[in-house]
Amino acid sequence: MSAIEITNHTVVIRELIISRNDVADFLASVPEDEREGLAREAFEVGVFCLERARGGKDMDFVRRQVESLLTTVENAVRLIPQATEEKLLAKLGTGEGQVLAPVQVLVQQVERGTQQQLREVPRAAGERDRPFKRVILSGQSAEEDDRPPRR
Prior knowledge:
Blueprint: E1 4-7, E2 10-13, H1 21-28, H2 32-91, H3 101-138
Antiparallel strand pairs: 1-2
């Protein structure tokens, strides 16, 4: 049989010996007929304190776990915008069958057309200025040129 029995919300402690001066001094200061009730009360208060202390440790553990999870979630959430942007660009990309492909084709056509027009500018300017250049290089007067005289 154990020295501590627990049955129906009752605790029976047989031959309990507490070797502590402060406990013995405290109980010695109490009248003998009150000692048993006071010892029971001290035991209950001690158990209450132990439960709260263990609960506090449990709460500290839970708090640390929650903080760790929150940090993990925050780090994951920070990556969502960048990942979303990358996925959207991959889907809306300029490759064949992607949403921006027609826009890229249009931009390329405009670019080619602009380059072609820019290449034609010197030719057009050269043809327009050819008689004038001929006059300057040959020393002819403006009247001899095909151009009308300046006013």
